[in-house]
Amino acid sequence: MTSQNETLFARAQRTIPGGVNSPVRAFRSVGGTPRFFVRGCGSRLTDADGREYIDYVGSWGPAIVGHAHPAVIEAVQRAAACGLSFGAPTEAEIELAELLCDMLPSLDLVRLVSSGTEATMSAIRLARGFTGRDDIIKFEGCYHGHADSLLVKAGSGLLTFGNPSSGGVPADFAKHTLVLDYNNLTQLEDSFAKAADRIAAVIIEPVVGNMNLIQPTPQFLRRLRDLCTQHGALLIYDEVMTGFRVGPQGAQGLHGIRPDLTTLGKVIGGGMPVGAFGGRRDVMQQIAPLGPVYQAGTLSGNPVAVAAGIATLKLVREPGFHARLEAATGRLVDGLARAGREVGVDFCAQSVGGMFGIYFRDGLPTTYGEVMESNRELFNRFFHSMLDRGVYFAPSAFEAGFVSAEHSDADIDQTVAHARAVFVDLSKG
Ligand code: HOZ
Asked: Domains in the chain, ordered, with CATH?
């Protein structure tokens, strides 16, 4: 009998390119049929065939308090009942901006937008406008949304499909994006030595989640901060994924580094479309209507989306939230790694706060090259076997995973038990 997921996927492909509205969802790199979800509750998702899954995608990060948290749903319902969009200021957007500036000391001013892509695209324009320079530096495998200048050797879907630079980006445009290796100090220093006066900004995922999970070395981040300061380039922390996910002050709090600009998304919208960029007052004052760098959006600061964000951040700020989230995520990766070791498969795992990486290779990767060496065939088999057992990991070997505050020890132990059984199968060849 054909499953509802298959029927829906066939129907979707008739009107939607590839049947999906964002490429990684199409399951192309792992093969098979994407699951069409009808419901999410806590740590669980239910698909169109009525099958339940423990969810480790969490809408790619936003679902930090679990799906359909009652406080978030109530806030959304209350806001929606008052009108969906005004295209004019509301008090709620001040509240969200105040919360963000309070939670991240590096934000003097913050502008709300509707997605992480808008946030990074606007931050780059702002950096160019502020410095009067054209070039930017990014790192191979980092993904900063789908603005033209950032789709050069990018991670996430581009890496998943083996096409790290997008079509449709003019060469004249891409030449202003210098791409360096993550964690490569020598290359970074050489680039500043050669081109410092042309570099408007360096944009970085301070913990990478778009080529699986990669952690920065502390020396790399510190030197990057120093070089930017020394040469008048802006340091942009893309915390769309890490913001309030890896700790109460994002990655900048973990490493004690103050970027000039920060981009946010995902968690700050609690599942609704919200992004933000903010930072130094003198830089942010260049944004229209205060300054000459233009940026706008009809749905920016949308009252319903903002209500979800405020309700989520209030939960995230409760005492002990991050300690519990980190412990749950640690329990998962420790359990998976132990199971892999005991069964004897080349597998390892790590976590930072509420995000994690799993790798079919011997040893945790610290570079793009090392991530690329992981065994994709084993990952794909693992992914499908886990899916069959009711565990939903990201359908790509190059995406980080996410745990929510609603994942119980029982959820995690069940996941580890399933993984152990799958590892045994994989070890048989
Ligand atoms: N770019 C997202 C993962 N890093 C995927 C977004 C989606 O498919 O929803």
From this structure: 4-68+319-427 (3.90.1150.10), 70-316 (3.40.640.10)
